[in-house]
Amino acid sequence: MDKVISGGKHLLFTCIHFFLSVVGIIALGAAPALFNGLSLNITHYYLTFGNLVQKLLEPSSLTYSYYKVVRPLFPEILIRYKESLFIFSSSFIVSLLLAIVIVYSLTRINPRVVNRIKQCIVYLEALPDILIIMTLQLSVVWLFKKTGILIVEVAAAGDQKIRALPIICLSIPTTIMFTKILLLRIEEEYEKPYVSLANSKGLSHFTVFFKHVLRNVLLRFFFFTKTNIWLMLSNLYIIEYFFNSIGLFIFVKDYNSIETFTVALLLIYVPIFIYFKVFSLFTSHLLKEVV
Q: Is residue 186 within 8 Å of 103, Cβ to Cβ?
């Protein structure tokens, strides 16, 4: 009975949290209507807020302007959203797999070498994303001029989709970030008694790492990965801009309006909110055991 009441309270709190978050996003989206030059226009803001809520409840009424031609916002924004989601999710998976391989390799080598590599990671982390993007673009162009072979597209034109180089560019800083976090957490995990017990039983380094240590570390990694996701999204905006990609962020920049901005923010926020709530629901008891 207590579990049912506790579950009901948690569900109610989650619904209230979600509702207030959506209201906050809509209020933020309507914020431009609050200002009239240097003065505040509260009445216009409330009218815009109400009008925006009404349009969101009727998605077919949402529009954007393209060279003074008014077009429906759906499904165009979903097409752009799908493109950004593909680059983001591909980079996330590639970066996580690479980081796991790198960290596993680091656990096999001399600790002095690992300390030097940690210092290199700090320096690499400080590299600007723009420098990485431009270096890769210029390298591809240089190779094309030398060999006549264009291995990947360096920029999109019109509605052309470009994915390979944006995924690589987003994966590089993300891999560095994931490697740093995973290495720190795995070093902490290796100091726990169960690892010594597993080693004393003669389990191989591979088995201890992937079957016990990594599982515990990944649970906490995914649970506390909210900051990483927001950092990746900020990098994704820069990448879409430099590659002229047809992603969501460039769509919002090119067709900036209260409706476009609010819908885009909701498309980003809602899946992240659901991900963390569902993950927390199914792993909270495991996390208590791990921590």
A: yes
Report the alpha-carbon distance of residue 4 to residue 42 in Å, rounded.
44
Task: Reduce the secondary structure of the chain to three states and give it as a string.
Answer: CHHHHHHHHHHHHHHHHHHHHHHHHHHHHCHHHHEECCEECHHHHHHHHHHHHHHHHCHHHCEEEECCEEEECCCHHHHHHHHHHHHHHHHHHHHHHHHHHHHHHHCCCCHHHHHHHHHHHHHHHCCCHHHHHHHHHHHHHHHHHHHCCCCCCCCCCCCCCCCHHHHHHHHHHHHHHHHHHHHHHHHHHHCCHHHHHHHHCCCCHHHHHHHHHHHHHHHHHHHCCHHHHHHHHHHHHHHHHHHCCCCHHHHHHHCCCHHHHHHHHHHHHHHHHHHHHHHHHHHHHHHHHHC
Helix axes of 2-29 and 258-290: crossing angle, nearest 10 degrees: 150
**In whole angstroms, what is the distance from residue 76 CA to residue 150 CA?**
30
Number of neighbouring beta carbons within 10 Å of residue 42: 9
Per-residue tokens: 196: 């010594």
Which pTM was predicted?
0.88
Q: What is the mean pLDDT of each run of 10 residues along the chain (291 residues)?
A: 72 90 94 84 92 92 84 91 94 95 92 90 86 90 90 82 91 92 90 87 89 86 79 90 89 90 94 86 62 45
Distance CA 270, CA 259 (A): 16
Structure tokens at 228: 């990483």
Compute the distance between CA of residue 67 and CA of residue 227 in angstroms, rounded to an integer. 37
Residue with tokens 């490697």: 179
